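Deliverable D4.2, example record:
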Amino acid sequence: MSLPPEILKKVKLLEIQTRKLVNNLFSGEYHTAFKGQGITFSDFREYIPGDDIRSISWTLTARAEKPYIKKFDEERELTLMLGVDVSASSDFGSRKYFKGEVINHLSALMSFSAAKNKDRIGLCMFSDQVEHYVPPAKGHGQVQRILRDLYYFKPRHTRTRIASMVEYLQGILKKRATVFLFSDFLDDNFADSLKTFGKKHEVVAVIIRDPLEQNLPDIGLVTLQDPESGETAVVDTSDKGFRQAYAAEMERRKKRCDEQLLKARVDRIDVFNPDDFVTPLVNFFKGHRRR
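Output generated by the structure prediction step:
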């Protein structure tokens, strides 16, 4: 597939930035945060004081007349699935990056971390339906494909329905996977489907929001458009009562989202500052590995 030069330039820049973060900041964090699928026997070695006596091979110890223990290796290979919300509301931002760009950076960060640990990575882009799917695979070529698709793919629909992605992945993922769900969660009814999905897979909800979505500035008359429905309205942001009502409505939506996520019983990462989206991810990894 031939890509426009501007897309290739963005992909290359994102790769350079992300590789630096993975090498300098994420070294060991990703690996220790997520466990493998099990352990397998690898070899025997002589017992050393302090070893777990439950690992002693009594049969070999009896034959050798000195204690030996069994060594086990972790089955490291994981499947990391990136669920990426590409609905129209991701094309909004008041800082350096739009919400969609923050999602792309975080997806790249996870992809390179997974590739470095030789894990399989897949991608599922969704709006109110699944727009694009990349089956999990290993290697740098897979990461390159995911980055190209994140920048180049054009969604056909504008609204958000998280259940559409969940239902699709439930049918296609046969083995347990770790699923990072990147979205602003502008969806009212996703708790039940996400809860069912989380019984088989490890699910992490990454909530992307922009500060301007919570509080409007006083800038006079402006035209606002709902990116998902396309509806527009002229509002007076200099009206304190209107700004307060707007903030109250946004707080109500946030509370509703929090209730849905709590009901779904999945892990979550809140990214409310688009200028610093890495720190919440690092903090999550550090907390996750201490469980």
